[in-house]
């Protein structure tokens, strides 16, 4: 694996592969790699002949200075893990390479960035995301870019960006990778104490409670959200937001009549975590054949097969 720090070097390295028609994949990261990132790299390795992993902590998308300062930076470790997962190039540009002196351009997607994360973190967050992703796509010119479902709103925004600007890249979304017990993997999990890690299971339990209700036929959003909040109560945790939304427009839904996104965010101590799950309305037996024709809309796979009620009970015991 080659480590590259400048756009000029990156383009020179990619030019022969592009000339020979090789499929180039990009996995954008901010480092502090975990198994979620590595699953993206391994997927890119399966789908592409050449894999680029970018590593850049983007200051433009942080709305809290302390969050930026505390974000873990482990480049030597990240380089080793990226190589082991199958990366051909680690692109780790400096701040000055990405945002040179006099930089005065930003890219913004309107509407869908106002909700959920945008409502809490402000418009500047997604403006920072869309600006740096546009730059990384233009620097690399990949055939495919890989993102994780954990950052569901980010994926929706980036897909809109690519469509609106006619960027010649395919965006592939990969399933959320979870720790034992269900906690979604995140670089920020490293900040959790043992007690906070147990409390953080409240997010997964909330999502599971709503999914269980939906599987039993409940379609009313207020009941699904109430069930999710109830599952969080034993952990003593309140969500920053908990919403059932359309998976493309991110508008709130009053009823679960088609596949939808249940999104949640919460602070556990000083650490802010997000998670989500796809919910589907219960399908009558007579309609199962029709449902099986749309596997891409099925819920994300779970790390285990135990009954959701058992998962919540175990998590509550851990929290105690």
Gist of the model:
This protein has 320 residues and is of the alpha/beta class. The chain contains 12 helices and 9 strands.
Would you write up a description of this structure?
By secondary structure, the chain is of the alpha/beta class. The chain has two domains: 2-174, HUPs (Rossmann fold, 3-Layer(aba) Sandwich); 187-319, Pantoate-beta-alanine ligase, C-terminal domain (Pantoate--beta-alanine Ligase, Chain: A,domain 2), CATH 3.30.1300.10. Helix content is 42%, strand content 17%. The chain is globular.
Strand content: 15-25%
The count of DSSP E runs of length 2 or more, i.e. the number of strands, is 9
Structural class: alpha/beta
CATH class of the largest domain, named Alpha Beta
Shape: globular
- Let me know the average pLDDT: 91
The order of strands across the largest sheet is: 1-4-3-2-5-6
């Amino acid at each position: 694996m080659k480590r590259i720090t400048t756009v000029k070097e990156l383009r020179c390295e990619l030019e022969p592969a592009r000339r020979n028609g090789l499929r180039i994949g990009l996995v954008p990261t901010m480092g502090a790699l975990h198994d979620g990132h590595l699953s993206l790299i391994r997927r890119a390795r399966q789908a592409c002949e050449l894999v680029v992993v970018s590593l850049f902590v983007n200051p433009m998308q942080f709305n809290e200075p302390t969050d930026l300062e505390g974000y873990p930076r482990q480049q030597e470790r990240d380089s080793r893990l990226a190589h082991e997962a199958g990366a051909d190039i680690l692109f780790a540009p400096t701040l000055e390479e990405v945002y040179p002196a006099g930089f005065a351009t930003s890219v913004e997607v309107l509407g869908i960035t106002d909700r959920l994360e945008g409502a809490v973190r402000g418009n500047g967050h997604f403006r920072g995301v869309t600006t740096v992703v546009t730059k990384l796509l233009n620097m690399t010119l990949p055939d495919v870019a890989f993102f994780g479902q954990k950052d569901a709103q980010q994926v929706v925004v980036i897909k809109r960006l690519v469509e609106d600007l006619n960027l010649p890249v395919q965006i592939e979304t990969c399933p959320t990778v979870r720790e034992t017990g269900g906690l979604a993997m995140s670089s920020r999990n490293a900040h959790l104490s043992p007690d906070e890690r147990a409390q953080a299971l409240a997010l997964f339990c909330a999502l599971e409670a709503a999914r269980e209700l939906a599987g039993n036929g409940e379609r009313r959003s207020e009941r699904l959200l109430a069930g999710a909040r109830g599952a969080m109560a034993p952990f003593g945790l309140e969500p920053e937001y908990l919403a059932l939304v359309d998976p493309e427009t991110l508008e709130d839904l009053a009823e679960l009549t088609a596949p939808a996104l249940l999104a949640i965010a919460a602070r556990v101590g000083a650490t802010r975590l997000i998670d989500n799950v796809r919910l589907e309305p219960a399908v009558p037996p007579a309609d199962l054949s029709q449902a099986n024709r749309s596997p891409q809309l099925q819920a994300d796979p779970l790390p285990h097969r135990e009954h959701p009620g058992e998962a919540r009970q175990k998590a509550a015991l851990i929290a105690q």
